[in-house]
Design brief:
homodimer; 253 residues; alpha/beta; 8-stranded mixed beta sheet; 9 helices; 44% helix
């Protein structure tokens, strides 16, 4: 199986490594930035390219880009692979329709940072394809790196992506805001780690609505007022505290 | 060591169980609601009471209440124990000053739900006391159930509590919001669990600012606009999406 990548970001990097480790041949890696293309290509014994005209025919061409970078790339990759896929949670399958006879979506639902290894076997990979045959092909490709392969249409995948932004990107940002509050008070972020671990662990036992705790959930107006006053000098934090506390109250049954 | 509890909520329940398991005698459990007092008291072989006049002298009287419930209780518990402590993250030590010669704070930094067991040994317990002798006593008491005991004054404890609301209570609510989005689209929350686990796990390897991913962090305005449009019919979710995305952008270095 010959696979090439357009893009060398976090998703492209982890996915190329996963395919490479499972024995596939990574042929070329394209990036606008040659250093980035080189870094990824070197690690999977592929050839880095910066000119899309150099693309050679492969079985699967994976596009893994910022959503806004797609339009420019899409006009230049016509018929460069048997199957062309993108890895976006939000873009529909349709955007690929003029690039190849067979196209698909290969969306791994995970947060990827280059320096942090991940366990691919548990990562849900959402598959969509232009034909049943290509869907079977992509499911089989996904199964070579993960045990959690899910056929999903563009509408449901978009909902999943929005949910993931809430559960992952926003959550991590809350960790960051907590770490800043601790730092300003000379307290170590280490103190918070058992709490963060338990909060994430808890939802394996209780649904999130049953797991909810804290002053907003208890309607403890006195603490809420004290905390809002504590954040008086940081209006941005106050706004977040307020909007999330109100949301917790309004979701309480 | 004889210990009694005023309050029978999540913190009181888990703390009484931890003391009980480590061999201490739980004497009485008070709650305004007799059923609640009974449920906790029965599980730790204590006596449930609803009238504070029935309190008998113990070594440690633990007050574990909603912050707003303290004022009424505080006038009725004068000199009922060698040491009287509260478990609030936000209330200062001073509120206890007329209740006993020796008072303290015993604040376990964790999220507690009655039906979910926790591992006490890793839970930071923040201690404050009216004298060095009582501080040593409370540290030793805390060490009997946890390996993470931290002396902390009221100001720093309040900061820690605010940070905990961001990292735990708000985070769990984001899990809930994500679960609602999935539910509305006929998708299982199970799909999100590897992502939630990895997001929490990641901060053991990377600081939260290095671990940040997602459209707001990448300034992918196209996805942000698509997601805001997706949430068009839920203004509350839109407000949360907007305030947190803007916060991520503004914290980007």
């Amino acid at each position: 199986m010959k696979i090439s990548f357009i893009g060398s970001g976090n998703v492209a990097t982890h996915l190329a490594h996963a395919f490479y480790r499972s024995g596939m041949e990574i042929v070329q890696v394209h990036s606008r930035n040659f250093e980035n293309a080189s870094a990824l290509a070197t690690s999977v014994k592929a050839t880095p390219i910066i000119n899309l005209k150099e693309l050679i025919w492969v079985d699967v061409l994976v596009l893994s880009l910022s959503d806004s970078a797609y339009p420019e790339i899409l006009t230049q990759i016509s018929q460069k692979a048997k199957v062309i896929v993108h890895t976006s949670g939000t873009l529909s399958l349709d955007i690929l329709e003029n690039t190849s006879d067979e196209v698909g979506v290969f969306y791994p639902l995970q947060t990827f940072s280059k320096s942090k290894p991940v366990n691919w076997s548990t990562i849900p990979i959402c598959i969509e394809a232009s034909s049943p045959k290509t869907q079977d092909f992509l499911i089989s490709l996904a199964n070579s790196i993960s045990d959690q392969v899910v056929p999903l249409d563009s509408t449901k995948r978009k909902a999943l992506h929005v949910a993931a932004v809430f559960a992952c990107n926003f959550t991590n940002h809350l960790y960051h805001l907590a770490s800043k509050i601790l730092e300003e008070n000379g307290l170590s972020f280490e103190l918070m780690k058992p709490l963060i671990a338990e909060t994430a662990e808890k939802i394996n036992t209780l649904t999130p609505d049953k797991a909810q705790t804290g002053p907003a959930f208890r309607n403890d107006e006195q603490i809420l007022a004290t905390h809002m006053q504590y954040l008086e000098n940081n209006k941005a934090l106050q706004a977040i505290y307020s909007v999330l506390s109100n949301s917790i109250k309004s979701h309480k049954k």
